[in-house]
Inverse folding.
């Protein structure tokens, strides 16, 4: 499906040029059916990656309040074996975290070989919130873009498949979702006055995000701008994109598992010969 994927710096990129709505020919029913099928393949690929242990997956989810980060996580994780999945959120740094570099707490949550890590907000908060609310001088947060690029390149070089999603929601849709939270008893617990306060900085956040996309987009850690006004389309795009990135490694994982199986059988046969046991199989 056509989505905006940023694989290199682009000084001209603007969020207003990307629609928050699904394509006109997209169907909610077809998307649901497709998402169900994708879940089966996603689980299959997860099992191959788990066995091969040559790669891991890091999914970064960023977006404005009510853009659907939790919903996207539920739909991706719901198709996976929870054995190999960890979800991390990064709020206000603790005292210990403040005593280290800003990436220290992030790197600790990077996925191990064979596993998934999902970041619900991420290291990019350190060039978003601190910038918009002037929590640190520009001389400090301005250097972080290069540090982030180096960090993501390091992960990629060690086999981490890095996929970054910005859930692109309109200001009108965000307002409707925030108001809906107040009416719905099952979501009222999410109410937070800060969500409304942050809306006052919509333009500042837009500018901050655009700088991120312009400076921190690469082939090894692309940004995917996901139209998020329709939840069903958002979920499909995220699942499709993750699968596409993992499919590239299917053959390598199968070859790795085949070699491991062959080595295991040879070791077992050697053991049986040493014991004088003949296998009847």
């Amino acid at each position: 499906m056509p989505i905006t994927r940023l694989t290199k710096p682009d000084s001209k990129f603007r969020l207003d040029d990307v629609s928050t709505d699904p394509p006109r020919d997209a169907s909610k029913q077809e998307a649901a059916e497709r998402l169900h099928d994708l879940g089966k393949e996603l689980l299959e690929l997860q099992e191959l990656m788990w066995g091969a242990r040559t790669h891991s997956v890091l999914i970064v989810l960023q977006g404005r309040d009510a853009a659907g980060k939790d919903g996207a996580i539920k739909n991706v994780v719901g198709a996976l074996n929870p054995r190999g999945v960890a979800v991390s959120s990064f709020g206000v740094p603790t005292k210990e975290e403040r005593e280290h570099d800003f990436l220290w707490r992030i790197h600790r949550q990077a996925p191990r070989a064979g596993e998934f890590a999902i970041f619900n907000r991420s290291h990019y908060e350190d060039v978003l919130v601190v910038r918009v609310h002037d929590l640190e001088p520009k001389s400090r947060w301005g250097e972080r873009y290069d540090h982030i690029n180096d960090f993501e390149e390091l992960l990629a070089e060690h086999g981490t498949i890095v996929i970054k999603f910005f859930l692109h929601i309109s200001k009108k849709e965000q307002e409707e979702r925030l108001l809906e939270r107040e009416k719905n008893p099952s979501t009222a617990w999410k109410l937070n006055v800060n969500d409304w306060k942050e809306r006052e900085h919509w333009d500042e956040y837009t500018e901050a995000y655009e700088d991120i996309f312009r400076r921190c987009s690469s082939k090894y850690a692309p940004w995917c701008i996901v139209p998020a006004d329709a939840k069903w389309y958002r979920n499909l795009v995220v699942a499709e994109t993750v699968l596409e990135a993992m499919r590239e490694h299917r053959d390598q994982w199968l070859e790795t598992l085949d070699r491991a199986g062959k080595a295991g059988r040879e070791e077992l046969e050697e053991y049986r010969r040493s014991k004088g046991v003949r296998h009847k199989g």
Remarks:
- The chain is about 50% helix and 10% strand.
- The radius of gyration is 22 Å.
- The CA atoms of residues 42 and 243 lie 6 Å apart.
- Residues 250-275 form the longest helix (26 residues).
